[in-house]
Amino acid sequence: MPTATAPSSPELTNVSASTSYLRRDRCRPPPLHFCAQMNANIRSNPSLDSPYFDLAGHIGSRAYCLHNIVYGDTADETATLLDVGVKDLLPILIPPPPVPAPKGVTFSIRKSEGKNGLGMFAAQNIPVGGLITVERPILVAPYIIGLQTHSESDFYTALLQRLPADTVARFMELANCKPASECDIVEGIMRTNAIAITLDVPDVPHPELSTHRAIFLDISRCNHSCGPNARWQWDAASFSLSLVALRPIEAGQEITVAYITPTCSRSERRTKLKTMYNFSCRCDFCARPSSLTSKSDVSRSELQTFWAALPSFEEWCLNPNMGDYALIDAHIRAVSVIESEGLEMLEYGKHLDAIAMGYGALRDVEQFRQWAWRARDFRPMDPEASRVLEGWILDPETFPVWGWRNLAKGSPKN
Description:
Elements: E1 13-14, E2 19-21, H1 32-43, H2 55-60, E3 64-70, E4 77-83, H3 84-89, E5 107-111, E6 118-122, E7 131-135, E8 139-142, H4 152-160, H5 165-172, H6 185-193, E9 195-198, E10 211-215, E11 223-224, E12 230-235, E13 240-245, E14 254-257, H7 266-277, H8 290-304, H9 313-318, H10 326-341, H11 348-361, H12 365-377, H13 383-394, H14 404-408
Parallel strand pairs: 4-8, 11-14
Antiparallel strand pairs: 1-2, 2-3, 3-4, 5-6, 6-14, 7-13, 8-10, 9-10, 12-13
Helix pairs in contact: 4-6, 8-10, 10-11, 11-12, 12-13
Protein backbone atom coordinates (compact mmCIF):
# COMPACT_ATOMS: atom_id res chain seq x y z
CA MET A 1 0.00 0.00 0.00
CA PRO A 2 1.17 3.58 -0.61
CA THR A 3 1.78 5.97 2.24
CA ALA A 4 -1.35 7.99 1.52
CA THR A 5 -3.85 7.74 4.38
CA ALA A 6 -7.59 7.39 4.39
CA PRO A 7 -9.75 10.42 5.23
CA SER A 8 -9.53 11.16 8.93
CA SER A 9 -13.29 11.48 9.47
CA PRO A 10 -15.19 10.55 6.32
CA GLU A 11 -18.10 8.73 7.90
CA LEU A 12 -21.27 10.12 9.41
CA THR A 13 -23.45 7.06 9.77
CA ASN A 14 -22.89 3.38 9.06
CA VAL A 15 -26.23 2.25 7.73
CA SER A 16 -25.03 -1.19 6.65
CA ALA A 17 -21.87 -3.23 6.34
CA SER A 18 -21.37 -1.89 2.83
CA THR A 19 -22.52 1.75 2.98
CA SER A 20 -21.19 4.81 4.82
CA TYR A 21 -22.46 8.35 4.34
CA LEU A 22 -20.02 11.26 4.23
CA ARG A 23 -20.30 14.70 5.72
CA ARG A 24 -21.46 17.42 3.34
CA ASP A 25 -18.63 19.76 2.44
CA ARG A 26 -18.68 23.02 4.40
CA CYS A 27 -15.76 24.65 2.58
CA ARG A 28 -16.10 27.79 0.54
CA PRO A 29 -16.47 27.36 -3.22
CA PRO A 30 -13.23 27.38 -5.21
CA PRO A 31 -11.90 30.74 -6.50
CA LEU A 32 -13.91 32.32 -9.31
CA HIS A 33 -11.15 31.94 -11.89
CA PHE A 34 -10.87 28.21 -11.12
CA CYS A 35 -14.66 27.76 -11.37
CA ALA A 36 -14.69 29.60 -14.70
CA GLN A 37 -11.94 27.38 -16.14
CA MET A 38 -13.58 24.17 -14.91
CA ASN A 39 -16.98 25.26 -16.19
CA ALA A 40 -15.52 25.96 -19.62
CA ASN A 41 -13.75 22.58 -19.72
CA ILE A 42 -16.81 20.58 -18.67
CA ARG A 43 -19.30 22.46 -20.83
CA SER A 44 -17.14 22.10 -23.95
CA ASN A 45 -16.54 18.37 -23.49
CA PRO A 46 -19.15 16.61 -25.69
CA SER A 47 -18.66 13.25 -23.98
CA LEU A 48 -19.80 14.73 -20.64
CA ASP A 49 -23.00 16.21 -22.12
CA SER A 50 -23.20 18.99 -19.49
CA PRO A 51 -23.47 22.32 -21.37
CA TYR A 52 -24.79 24.15 -18.27
CA PHE A 53 -22.40 22.76 -15.68
CA ASP A 54 -21.74 25.07 -12.69
CA LEU A 55 -18.91 23.99 -10.38
CA ALA A 56 -19.98 26.09 -7.40
CA GLY A 57 -23.53 24.76 -7.59
CA HIS A 58 -22.23 21.26 -8.17
CA ILE A 59 -20.09 21.33 -5.02
CA GLY A 60 -22.85 22.86 -2.92
CA SER A 61 -25.33 20.16 -3.98
CA ARG A 62 -23.25 17.05 -3.40
CA ALA A 63 -23.72 14.48 -0.67
CA TYR A 64 -21.71 11.27 -1.02
CA CYS A 65 -21.52 7.78 0.36
CA LEU A 66 -18.93 5.02 0.31
CA HIS A 67 -20.79 1.96 -0.89
CA ASN A 68 -19.71 -1.60 -1.72
CA ILE A 69 -21.61 -3.34 -4.51
CA VAL A 70 -21.79 -7.12 -4.26
CA TYR A 71 -23.08 -9.43 -6.97
CA GLY A 72 -25.20 -12.54 -6.80
CA ASP A 73 -23.66 -14.22 -9.85
CA THR A 74 -19.98 -13.86 -8.89
CA ALA A 75 -17.77 -13.19 -5.89
CA ASP A 76 -16.72 -9.84 -7.38
CA GLU A 77 -17.04 -6.68 -5.32
CA THR A 78 -16.95 -3.00 -6.28
CA ALA A 79 -16.04 -0.19 -3.88
CA THR A 80 -17.75 3.03 -4.92
CA LEU A 81 -17.83 6.68 -3.97
CA LEU A 82 -21.21 7.87 -5.24
CA ASP A 83 -23.52 10.80 -4.97
CA VAL A 84 -26.30 9.66 -2.65
CA GLY A 85 -28.89 10.21 -5.35
CA VAL A 86 -26.93 8.09 -7.81
CA LYS A 87 -26.49 5.33 -5.23
CA ASP A 88 -30.24 5.31 -4.55
CA LEU A 89 -30.92 4.67 -8.25
CA LEU A 90 -28.87 1.47 -8.25
CA PRO A 91 -30.96 -1.70 -8.30
CA ILE A 92 -31.03 -3.70 -5.09
CA LEU A 93 -30.05 -6.81 -7.02
CA ILE A 94 -27.54 -6.38 -9.87
CA PRO A 95 -28.39 -8.81 -12.70
CA PRO A 96 -25.77 -10.87 -14.53
CA PRO A 97 -24.21 -9.39 -17.71
CA PRO A 98 -26.51 -9.69 -20.75
CA VAL A 99 -23.93 -11.92 -22.49
CA PRO A 100 -21.98 -14.32 -20.27
CA ALA A 101 -18.20 -14.30 -20.27
CA PRO A 102 -16.64 -16.55 -22.93
CA LYS A 103 -15.58 -20.04 -21.91
CA GLY A 104 -11.91 -20.86 -21.89
CA VAL A 105 -8.91 -18.55 -21.83
CA THR A 106 -9.28 -15.75 -24.39
CA PHE A 107 -6.41 -13.47 -23.34
CA SER A 108 -3.21 -13.19 -21.34
CA ILE A 109 -1.52 -10.24 -19.64
CA ARG A 110 2.19 -9.91 -20.41
CA LYS A 111 4.97 -7.53 -21.37
CA SER A 112 4.20 -5.47 -24.44
CA GLU A 113 7.26 -5.16 -26.67
CA GLY A 114 8.33 -1.59 -27.34
CA LYS A 115 6.18 -0.28 -24.51
CA ASN A 116 6.94 0.45 -20.89
CA GLY A 117 4.40 -1.86 -19.28
CA LEU A 118 2.12 -4.83 -19.71
CA GLY A 119 -0.62 -5.35 -22.25
CA MET A 120 -3.46 -7.72 -23.10
CA PHE A 121 -2.88 -10.36 -25.80
CA ALA A 122 -5.23 -12.78 -27.54
CA ALA A 123 -4.80 -16.37 -26.34
CA GLN A 124 -6.84 -17.71 -29.26
CA ASN A 125 -8.18 -16.48 -32.59
CA ILE A 126 -11.03 -14.06 -31.92
CA PRO A 127 -13.56 -13.30 -34.70
CA VAL A 128 -14.99 -9.88 -35.49
CA GLY A 129 -17.58 -9.07 -32.86
CA GLY A 130 -16.17 -11.78 -30.59
CA LEU A 131 -16.47 -11.26 -26.86
CA ILE A 132 -13.01 -11.18 -25.29
CA THR A 133 -13.97 -10.74 -21.65
CA VAL A 134 -16.62 -9.32 -19.31
CA GLU A 135 -15.50 -7.58 -16.15
CA ARG A 136 -16.88 -5.69 -13.15
CA PRO A 137 -14.97 -2.65 -11.88
CA ILE A 138 -13.16 -2.76 -8.54
CA LEU A 139 -13.42 1.01 -8.00
CA VAL A 140 -15.92 3.63 -9.15
CA ALA A 141 -15.77 7.35 -8.35
CA PRO A 142 -17.32 10.55 -9.73
CA TYR A 143 -15.65 12.33 -12.62
CA ILE A 144 -15.39 15.35 -10.32
CA ILE A 145 -15.45 14.78 -6.56
CA GLY A 146 -17.37 17.71 -5.11
CA LEU A 147 -15.89 17.54 -1.63
CA GLN A 148 -12.88 19.66 -0.72
CA THR A 149 -12.31 18.47 2.83
CA HIS A 150 -10.13 15.61 1.57
CA SER A 151 -7.92 15.03 -1.45
CA GLU A 152 -8.82 12.72 -4.33
CA SER A 153 -6.11 10.34 -3.16
CA ASP A 154 -7.69 10.21 0.30
CA PHE A 155 -10.98 9.03 -1.20
CA TYR A 156 -9.34 6.51 -3.53
CA THR A 157 -7.33 5.13 -0.61
CA ALA A 158 -10.49 4.86 1.48
CA LEU A 159 -12.08 2.86 -1.35
CA LEU A 160 -9.10 0.52 -1.56
CA GLN A 161 -9.38 -0.16 2.17
CA ARG A 162 -12.84 -1.61 1.50
CA LEU A 163 -11.46 -4.27 -0.86
CA PRO A 164 -9.63 -7.59 -0.31
CA ALA A 165 -5.85 -7.44 0.02
CA ASP A 166 -5.21 -9.39 -3.20
CA THR A 167 -7.40 -6.95 -5.17
CA VAL A 168 -5.51 -4.00 -3.68
CA ALA A 169 -2.20 -5.65 -4.59
CA ARG A 170 -3.29 -6.03 -8.21
CA PHE A 171 -4.42 -2.40 -8.28
CA MET A 172 -1.00 -1.28 -7.08
CA GLU A 173 0.61 -3.20 -9.97
CA LEU A 174 -1.21 -1.09 -12.58
CA ALA A 175 0.79 1.51 -14.50
CA ASN A 176 1.26 5.05 -13.21
CA CYS A 177 2.13 7.67 -15.84
CA LYS A 178 1.90 10.64 -13.48
CA PRO A 179 5.07 12.12 -11.89
CA ALA A 180 5.32 12.34 -8.10
CA SER A 181 5.33 16.11 -8.40
CA GLU A 182 1.78 15.98 -9.78
CA CYS A 183 0.10 13.44 -7.48
CA ASP A 184 0.81 10.42 -5.30
CA ILE A 185 0.84 6.78 -6.42
CA VAL A 186 -2.82 5.96 -5.76
CA GLU A 187 -4.16 9.00 -7.59
CA GLY A 188 -1.65 8.46 -10.39
CA ILE A 189 -2.80 4.88 -10.93
CA MET A 190 -6.43 5.98 -10.91
CA ARG A 191 -5.86 8.78 -13.41
CA THR A 192 -3.75 6.55 -15.67
CA ASN A 193 -6.09 3.56 -15.80
CA ALA A 194 -9.63 4.82 -15.15
CA ILE A 195 -12.19 4.06 -17.87
CA ALA A 196 -15.18 6.36 -18.34
CA ILE A 197 -18.53 4.74 -17.55
CA THR A 198 -21.99 6.28 -17.27
CA LEU A 199 -24.52 5.87 -14.46
CA ASP A 200 -28.09 7.08 -14.07
CA VAL A 201 -28.34 10.36 -12.18
CA PRO A 202 -31.36 12.02 -10.52
CA ASP A 203 -33.19 14.81 -12.33
CA VAL A 204 -32.43 17.55 -9.80
CA PRO A 205 -30.84 21.03 -9.88
CA HIS A 206 -27.06 20.77 -10.28
CA PRO A 207 -27.15 17.01 -10.94
CA GLU A 208 -24.16 14.75 -10.63
CA LEU A 209 -22.31 14.14 -13.89
CA SER A 210 -23.37 10.82 -15.37
CA THR A 211 -19.75 10.09 -16.36
CA HIS A 212 -17.76 8.29 -13.65
CA ARG A 213 -14.24 6.87 -13.43
CA ALA A 214 -13.86 3.10 -13.06
CA ILE A 215 -10.91 0.76 -12.64
CA PHE A 216 -10.93 -2.73 -14.18
CA LEU A 217 -8.00 -4.96 -13.28
CA ASP A 218 -7.81 -6.75 -16.64
CA ILE A 219 -9.40 -4.44 -19.23
CA SER A 220 -7.49 -1.46 -17.84
CA ARG A 221 -4.35 -3.28 -19.06
CA CYS A 222 -5.32 -2.72 -22.71
CA ASN A 223 -2.87 -0.43 -24.46
CA HIS A 224 -3.77 2.30 -26.92
CA SER A 225 -3.83 2.22 -30.71
CA CYS A 226 -5.03 4.90 -33.10
CA GLY A 227 -6.58 2.02 -35.05
CA PRO A 228 -7.81 -0.22 -32.20
CA ASN A 229 -8.92 -3.80 -32.77
CA ALA A 230 -11.29 -3.85 -29.78
CA ARG A 231 -13.74 -1.58 -27.98
CA TRP A 232 -15.35 -1.28 -24.58
CA GLN A 233 -19.09 -1.72 -24.13
CA TRP A 234 -20.50 -0.64 -20.75
CA ASP A 235 -23.77 -2.08 -19.45
CA ALA A 236 -24.96 0.01 -16.49
CA ALA A 237 -27.76 -2.41 -15.60
CA SER A 238 -25.36 -5.27 -14.84
CA PHE A 239 -22.47 -2.98 -13.83
CA SER A 240 -20.23 -4.78 -16.31
CA LEU A 241 -17.83 -3.85 -19.09
CA SER A 242 -17.49 -6.07 -22.15
CA LEU A 243 -14.43 -6.05 -24.39
CA VAL A 244 -15.41 -6.84 -28.00
CA ALA A 245 -13.27 -7.43 -31.10
CA LEU A 246 -13.77 -4.85 -33.86
CA ARG A 247 -12.05 -7.05 -36.44
CA PRO A 248 -10.48 -10.53 -36.37
CA ILE A 249 -7.65 -10.80 -33.83
CA GLU A 250 -5.12 -13.61 -34.21
CA ALA A 251 -3.75 -15.58 -31.28
CA GLY A 252 -0.72 -13.78 -29.87
CA GLN A 253 -1.76 -10.39 -31.26
CA GLU A 254 -2.05 -7.49 -28.80
CA ILE A 255 -5.58 -6.35 -28.01
CA THR A 256 -5.82 -2.57 -28.21
CA VAL A 257 -8.39 0.16 -27.58
CA ALA A 258 -8.47 3.91 -28.25
CA TYR A 259 -7.76 6.22 -25.31
CA ILE A 260 -8.80 9.31 -27.29
CA THR A 261 -11.06 10.09 -30.24
CA PRO A 262 -8.79 9.10 -33.13
CA THR A 263 -10.19 11.28 -35.94
CA CYS A 264 -7.79 14.17 -35.38
CA SER A 265 -4.40 14.35 -37.14
CA ARG A 266 -1.44 12.22 -36.12
CA SER A 267 0.31 15.26 -34.66
CA GLU A 268 -2.73 16.18 -32.57
CA ARG A 269 -3.23 12.61 -31.38
CA ARG A 270 0.37 12.25 -30.28
CA THR A 271 0.27 15.59 -28.47
CA LYS A 272 -2.91 14.62 -26.58
CA LEU A 273 -1.52 11.22 -25.61
CA LYS A 274 1.76 12.72 -24.45
CA THR A 275 -0.09 15.28 -22.33
CA MET A 276 -2.63 12.88 -20.84
CA TYR A 277 -0.63 9.64 -20.57
CA ASN A 278 3.00 10.67 -20.99
CA PHE A 279 3.88 8.46 -23.95
CA SER A 280 4.64 9.03 -27.62
CA CYS A 281 2.33 6.87 -29.70
CA ARG A 282 4.13 4.37 -31.91
CA CYS A 283 1.14 2.29 -32.98
CA ASP A 284 1.04 0.90 -36.53
CA PHE A 285 -1.01 3.88 -37.69
CA CYS A 286 1.32 6.51 -36.21
CA ALA A 287 4.40 4.62 -37.44
CA ARG A 288 3.38 4.86 -41.09
CA PRO A 289 5.83 6.60 -43.45
CA SER A 290 5.46 10.36 -43.50
CA SER A 291 4.38 10.13 -47.14
CA LEU A 292 1.17 8.44 -45.97
CA THR A 293 0.51 10.67 -42.99
CA SER A 294 -1.18 13.51 -44.87
CA LYS A 295 -3.53 11.11 -46.64
CA SER A 296 -4.39 9.46 -43.34
CA ASP A 297 -5.06 12.82 -41.69
CA VAL A 298 -7.41 13.82 -44.53
CA SER A 299 -9.24 10.48 -44.35
CA ARG A 300 -9.78 10.77 -40.60
CA SER A 301 -10.98 14.35 -40.96
CA GLU A 302 -13.44 13.16 -43.60
CA LEU A 303 -14.91 10.67 -41.14
CA GLN A 304 -15.18 13.36 -38.49
CA THR A 305 -17.52 15.45 -40.67
CA PHE A 306 -19.20 12.63 -42.61
CA TRP A 307 -22.66 12.70 -41.08
CA ALA A 308 -23.05 16.50 -41.10
CA ALA A 309 -22.73 16.65 -44.90
CA LEU A 310 -25.01 13.69 -45.63
CA PRO A 311 -28.68 13.85 -46.65
CA SER A 312 -31.01 11.72 -44.59
CA PHE A 313 -32.31 8.37 -45.83
CA GLU A 314 -35.80 9.87 -46.25
CA GLU A 315 -34.45 12.78 -48.30
CA TRP A 316 -32.62 10.39 -50.60
CA CYS A 317 -35.68 8.16 -50.99
CA LEU A 318 -37.99 11.05 -51.89
CA ASN A 319 -35.65 13.04 -54.15
CA PRO A 320 -35.59 11.58 -57.70
CA ASN A 321 -32.90 14.10 -58.66
CA MET A 322 -30.40 12.34 -56.41
CA GLY A 323 -28.67 9.36 -57.95
CA ASP A 324 -29.93 5.93 -57.01
CA TYR A 325 -26.58 5.04 -55.49
CA ALA A 326 -25.54 8.44 -54.14
CA LEU A 327 -26.25 7.59 -50.50
CA ILE A 328 -25.03 4.01 -50.79
CA ASP A 329 -21.76 5.05 -52.43
CA ALA A 330 -21.13 7.63 -49.71
CA HIS A 331 -21.47 4.98 -47.00
CA ILE A 332 -19.37 2.48 -48.95
CA ARG A 333 -16.67 5.16 -49.17
CA ALA A 334 -16.88 5.64 -45.39
CA VAL A 335 -16.57 1.87 -44.84
CA SER A 336 -13.48 1.78 -47.05
CA VAL A 337 -11.84 4.65 -45.14
CA ILE A 338 -12.75 3.12 -41.78
CA GLU A 339 -11.20 -0.19 -42.75
CA SER A 340 -8.01 1.38 -44.09
CA GLU A 341 -7.58 3.47 -40.93
CA GLY A 342 -8.61 0.73 -38.49
CA LEU A 343 -11.48 2.80 -37.14
CA GLU A 344 -14.30 0.29 -36.89
CA MET A 345 -15.07 1.89 -33.53
CA LEU A 346 -16.54 4.89 -35.42
CA GLU A 347 -20.12 3.80 -36.16
CA TYR A 348 -18.95 1.10 -38.55
CA GLY A 349 -22.12 -0.88 -37.90
CA LYS A 350 -24.24 2.18 -38.62
CA HIS A 351 -22.65 2.48 -42.07
CA LEU A 352 -23.31 -1.21 -42.77
CA ASP A 353 -26.93 -0.72 -41.73
CA ALA A 354 -27.28 2.30 -44.02
CA ILE A 355 -25.90 0.43 -47.03
CA ALA A 356 -28.25 -2.50 -46.44
CA MET A 357 -31.17 -0.06 -46.09
CA GLY A 358 -30.22 1.63 -49.36
CA TYR A 359 -30.16 -1.62 -51.28
CA GLY A 360 -33.41 -2.64 -49.61
CA ALA A 361 -35.02 0.61 -50.74
CA LEU A 362 -33.86 -0.26 -54.29
CA ARG A 363 -35.19 -3.84 -54.01
CA ASP A 364 -31.73 -5.30 -54.71
CA VAL A 365 -32.07 -8.68 -53.01
CA GLU A 366 -28.51 -9.91 -53.50
CA GLN A 367 -26.79 -6.74 -52.28
CA PHE A 368 -29.29 -6.28 -49.46
CA ARG A 369 -28.59 -9.77 -48.14
CA GLN A 370 -24.81 -9.34 -48.47
CA TRP A 371 -24.69 -6.10 -46.46
CA ALA A 372 -27.34 -7.16 -43.96
CA TRP A 373 -25.23 -10.23 -43.18
CA ARG A 374 -22.21 -8.03 -42.64
CA ALA A 375 -24.24 -5.81 -40.33
CA ARG A 376 -25.44 -8.88 -38.46
CA ASP A 377 -21.94 -10.37 -38.11
CA PHE A 378 -20.64 -7.12 -36.66
CA ARG A 379 -23.05 -7.19 -33.70
CA PRO A 380 -23.16 -10.69 -32.15
CA MET A 381 -23.34 -8.99 -28.73
CA ASP A 382 -26.89 -7.87 -29.64
CA PRO A 383 -28.89 -11.10 -30.03
CA GLU A 384 -32.20 -9.30 -30.61
CA ALA A 385 -30.83 -7.17 -33.46
CA SER A 386 -29.19 -10.26 -34.97
CA ARG A 387 -32.49 -12.13 -34.85
CA VAL A 388 -34.36 -9.30 -36.56
CA LEU A 389 -31.72 -8.99 -39.30
CA GLU A 390 -31.78 -12.72 -39.92
CA GLY A 391 -35.55 -12.53 -40.42
CA TRP A 392 -35.20 -9.77 -43.01
CA ILE A 393 -32.41 -11.65 -44.79
CA LEU A 394 -34.59 -14.73 -45.11
CA ASP A 395 -37.56 -12.69 -46.35
CA PRO A 396 -36.47 -9.27 -47.71
CA GLU A 397 -40.06 -8.32 -48.49
CA THR A 398 -40.62 -7.95 -44.72
CA PHE A 399 -37.92 -5.26 -44.47
CA PRO A 400 -39.82 -2.09 -43.41
CA VAL A 401 -38.43 0.18 -46.17
CA TRP A 402 -38.33 -2.43 -48.92
CA GLY A 403 -38.71 -0.74 -52.31
CA TRP A 404 -39.22 2.78 -50.92
CA ARG A 405 -36.84 4.44 -53.37
CA ASN A 406 -38.52 2.79 -56.34
CA LEU A 407 -41.99 3.75 -55.12
CA ALA A 408 -40.93 7.38 -54.57
CA LYS A 409 -39.70 7.52 -58.17
CA GLY A 410 -42.97 6.05 -59.41
CA SER A 411 -41.33 2.77 -60.42
CA PRO A 412 -43.39 -0.41 -60.37
CA LYS A 413 -43.44 -2.18 -57.03
CA ASN A 414 -41.87 -5.32 -58.51
